[in-house]
Amino acid sequence: MPNLGPKTELYEQLASVAKALSHSVRLELMEHLGQGERSVEALAKLVGHSLANTSHHLLLLRRAGLAVARKDGKRVLYRLSGDDVVDLLGALRLSAERHSAEVENILSGFFRDRDDMEPVSREELLRRAKDGLVTVLDVRPADEYAAGHVPGAVNIQPSELGKRLKEIPKDHQVIAYCRGAYCVLSFEAVAELRKKGFNVRRLEEGYPEWKAAGLPVRSSIP
Predict the structure, then answer these.
(1) 138-158 residue pLDDT tens
(2) pTM for this prediction
């Protein structure tokens, strides 16, 4: 086999990273890892796969440099290797939305039909939150909220909205956010709150993108 030049070697390594991104389960795992560090067991439950299968996908992400792992007793905990990995996923998403007819059909048939108001950018949310003009609603599970959230955000999952509506002021616009641009929890929350007469919109992206942009975050974990 002929010796590879440095340029070819570099492309070989870039191809290995691209290969790690080429499976839907690994992309979903990366979305969950974007919320914070998680055990293999927790990730397997979230994606609905066996421990062995989940461990295999996580190992491929680690080998590609997209995730890192550490041991905590008998558990193995994973997290993304850096905020730039969130940027990489965002670039993949935007490119697919612009150039893939299949992605456009899915977006038009599900997400956009459920979000007929213009989503709010993170810059607009930051500005309006500083002025006290909005109530920020984090609809992720409580453990993800505890690991990190937008400052001042109220944590209410969609299944709890019916019994916790009094915690959401009706004289403020509500902006809901979730795990990312394709997280259905924020769409569900927006739809439910609109039925109840709230002025509510959805954050264009999610918590990982907010954090990766260097914007302020808070944690409830000591």
Answers:
(1) 999 999 999 999 999 999 999
(2) 0.88
User: Does an H or E element contain 196, and which?
Assistant: none
3 state DSSP class of 214: coil
Task: Read off the pLDDT of residues 162-174 as tens digits, 9 standing for 90 and up.
Answer: 999 999 998 889 9
* Rounded distance between C-alpha atoms, residue 120 and residue 201, angstroms: 7
Active-site annotation holder among 29, 40, 178, 212: 178
107 within some domain: no
Q: Is residue 93 one of the residues assigned to a domain?
A: no
Split at pLDDT 50, 70, 90, the class of 2 is: low
User: Are 129 and 54 found together in one domain?
Assistant: no
Residue closest to 219 by CA, chosen among 123, 150, 156, 154: 150
The pair phi, psi for residue 113, each rounded to 5°, is -65, -20
Q: Is 178 a residue of the active site?
A: yes
Q: Within a domain: residue 97? A: no
Task: Quick: pLDDT tens for 105-137.
Answer: 887 776 766 656 578 999 999 888 888 889 999
Same domain, 78 and 165: no
State the residue range of the domain holding 62. 6-84
CB-CB contact of 215 with 124 (8 Å): no
The closest alpha carbon to 90, from 184, 209, 213, 215, belongs to 209
Q: What is the domain count for the chain?
A: 2
